[in-house]
């Protein structure tokens, strides 16, 4: 009772002396008192080590409330410096002193902007657009071309939507009407693509119906799909053969450069990233 | 329409949104269609834009109810708007917004002036505690000069609209007592 009422350092002194008394009772009491006070217990209870760490400006804790004033909400930290490590902890670097983050010049998200410096085109730039693709023009295009053009349109619409948002939120000024005009042309192109593909689908359906009744066409998938039959009689064949050969050579000579120089076909060897923007 | 509504040709519009001031550069915000889910955005960004994404967060902004025709019509709630925040593998820093002087092509001066006028007008109309008396309304100078000119003409009687009749039309019933 008396020990517990004392200061902690004094209480420890009492505990140490009692420990000596119980462990070495055979020794005379005088030697026990004269022996220096060194640590024997596993827990350090020496008076010098018992001294609490104090940070500068710490007040005396008279009321024995160890956690008074500590708050996780106010981020006060512990009142007493923890004695586990004296290593200095790393301090967070202020945001403005951090090195600038480099954006990859080939980052895919640049495609949401007209160029690398501006987010929204000026109304003058937005108004510089041509007409949409017509259905007649798209009928001559291949499936791949149409597919690629569709994705160009999708990206352009995303670009316009991004610019619209930026113009409204950052209060840049006018330009909504010009952006809408551009968007209208893009949507007309997309509608034309759908029109073309639908037409092509109906044509294919009709062709399948015809092919089912056509003896020259084999739809089973085994062997050649188209085997032309010779309708000419034996006598006529020999007479016509010479003419056919001449016609074929002429056709081949014409077809080769026409295929190479066909202006309406976009070369499909170009990768999608390099494809021209609308 | 079987072939045209296919998964390889989506018709969605996605807007890339400027990040908030302290948003880290590995987060990219998008406004997406309401039917979009996180996997849709991930695949869309990867296949259309070649952008890799580690995770996607999504939320929906529900607007407050509004009235049609400004202040008088039926109450309705505008359509909600879905936003998604993608965590990017490669960070992306937005270009700075244009400075005041660079907004000249957008006619920024007129735009702000018009916006201020509109706001003032709305404030004036909707504030019930601030209805000025007739005597408190300031008469614009143009109206005052117009009134002076009109009074001057009335006194002198010299005013005409500068048009001379061709004489074809004559008052027939001039002598008829009314």
Automatic annotation (TrEMBL), chain A:
<keyword id="KW-0496">Mitochondrion</keyword>
<dbReference type="GO" id="GO:0032543">
    <property type="term" value="P:mitochondrial translation"/>
</dbReference>
<keyword id="KW-0687">Ribonucleoprotein</keyword>
<feature type="compositionally biased region" description="Low complexity">
    <location>
        <begin position="248"/>
        <end position="260"/>
    </location>
</feature>
<protein>
    <recommendedName>
        <fullName>Large ribosomal subunit protein uL29m</fullName>
    </recommendedName>
</protein>
<dbReference type="GO" id="GO:0005762">
    <property type="term" value="C:mitochondrial large ribosomal subunit"/>
</dbReference>
<feature type="region of interest" description="Disordered">
    <location>
        <begin position="48"/>
        <end position="97"/>
    </location>
</feature>
<feature type="region of interest" description="Disordered">
    <location>
        <begin position="248"/>
        <end position="278"/>
    </location>
</feature>
<dbReference type="Pfam" id="PF06984">
    <property type="entry name" value="MRP-L47"/>
</dbReference>
<dbReference type="InterPro" id="IPR010729">
    <property type="entry name" value="Ribosomal_uL29_mit"/>
</dbReference>
<dbReference type="InterPro" id="IPR038340">
    <property type="entry name" value="MRP-L47_sf"/>
</dbReference>
<comment type="similarity">
    <text>Belongs to the universal ribosomal protein uL29 family.</text>
</comment>
<keyword id="KW-0689">Ribosomal protein</keyword>
<dbReference type="GO" id="GO:0003735">
    <property type="term" value="F:structural constituent of ribosome"/>
</dbReference>
<feature type="compositionally biased region" description="Basic and acidic residues">
    <location>
        <begin position="57"/>
        <end position="73"/>
    </location>
</feature>
UniProtKB/TrEMBL annotation, chain B:
<keyword id="KW-0687">Ribonucleoprotein</keyword>
<keyword id="KW-0689">Ribosomal protein</keyword>
<protein>
    <recommendedName>
        <fullName>Large ribosomal subunit protein uL23m</fullName>
    </recommendedName>
</protein>
<dbReference type="InterPro" id="IPR012677">
    <property type="entry name" value="Nucleotide-bd_a/b_plait_sf"/>
</dbReference>
<dbReference type="Pfam" id="PF00276">
    <property type="entry name" value="Ribosomal_L23"/>
</dbReference>
<dbReference type="GO" id="GO:0005762">
    <property type="term" value="C:mitochondrial large ribosomal subunit"/>
</dbReference>
<dbReference type="InterPro" id="IPR013025">
    <property type="entry name" value="Ribosomal_uL23-like"/>
</dbReference>
<comment type="similarity">
    <text>Belongs to the universal ribosomal protein uL23 family.</text>
</comment>
<dbReference type="GO" id="GO:0032543">
    <property type="term" value="P:mitochondrial translation"/>
</dbReference>
<dbReference type="GO" id="GO:0003735">
    <property type="term" value="F:structural constituent of ribosome"/>
</dbReference>
<dbReference type="InterPro" id="IPR012678">
    <property type="entry name" value="Ribosomal_uL23/eL15/eS24_sf"/>
</dbReference>
<feature type="region of interest" description="Disordered">
    <location>
        <begin position="154"/>
        <end position="178"/>
    </location>
</feature>
<feature type="compositionally biased region" description="Basic and acidic residues">
    <location>
        <begin position="165"/>
        <end position="178"/>
    </location>
</feature>
């Amino acid at each position: 009772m008396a020990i517990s009422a004392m200061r902690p350092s004094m209480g420890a002194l009492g505990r140490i002396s009692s420990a000596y008394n119980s462990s070495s009772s055979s020794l005379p009491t005088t030697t026990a008192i004269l022996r220096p006070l060194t640590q024997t217990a596993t827990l350090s209870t020496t008076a010098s080590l018992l001294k609490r760490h104090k940070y500068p400006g710490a007040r005396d804790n008279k009321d024995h409330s160890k956690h008074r004033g500590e708050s996780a909400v106010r981020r006060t930290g512990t009142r007493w410096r923890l004695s586990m490590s004296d290593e200095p902890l790393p301090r967070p670097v202020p945001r403005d002193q951090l090195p600038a983050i480099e954006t990859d010049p080939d980052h895919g998200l640049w495609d949401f902007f007209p160029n690398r410096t501006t987010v929204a085109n000026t109304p003058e730039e937005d108004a510089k657009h041509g007409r949409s693709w017509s259905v007649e023009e798209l009928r001559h295009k291949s499936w791949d071309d149409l597919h690629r053009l569709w994705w160009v349109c999708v990206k352009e619409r995303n670009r316009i939507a991004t610019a619209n948002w930026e113009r409204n939120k950052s209060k840049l000024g006018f330009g909504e009407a010009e952006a809408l005009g551009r968007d209208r042309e893009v949507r007309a192109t997309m509608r034309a693509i759908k029109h073309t593909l639908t037409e092509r689908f109906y044509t294919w359906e009709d062709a399948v119906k015809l092919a089912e009744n056509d003896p020259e066409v084999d739809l089973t998938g085994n062997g050649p799909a188209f085997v032309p039959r010779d309708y000419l009689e034996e006598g006529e064949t020999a007479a016509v053969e010479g003419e056919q050969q001449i016609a074929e050579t002429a056709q081949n000579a014409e077809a080769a450069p026409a295929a190479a120089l066909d202006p309406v076909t976009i070369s499909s060897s170009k990768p999608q990233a390099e494809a021209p923007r609308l | 329409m079987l072939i045209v509504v296919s998964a390889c040709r989506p018709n969605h519009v996605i807007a890339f949104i400027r990040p908030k001031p302290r948003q880290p550069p590995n987060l990219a915000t998008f406004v997406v269609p309401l039917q979009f889910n996180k996997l849709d955005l991930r695949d869309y960004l990867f296949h259309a834009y070649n952008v890799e994404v580690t995770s996607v967060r999504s939320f929906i902004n529900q607007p407050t109810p509004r009235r049609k025709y400004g202040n008088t019509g039926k109450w309705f709630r505008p359509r909600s708007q879905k936003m998604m925040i993608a965590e990017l593998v490669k960070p992306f820093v937005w270009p700075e917004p244009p400075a005041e002087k660079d907004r000249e092509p957008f006619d920024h001066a007129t735009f702000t002036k018009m916006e201020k006028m509109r706001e003032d007008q709305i404030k004036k109309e909707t504030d019930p505690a601030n209805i000025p008396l007739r005597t408190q309304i300031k008469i614009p100078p143009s109206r005052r000069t117009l009134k002076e000119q009109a009074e001057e003409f009335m006194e002198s009687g010299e005013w005409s609209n500068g048009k001379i009749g061709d004489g074809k039309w004559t008052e027939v019933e001039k002598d008829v007592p009314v």
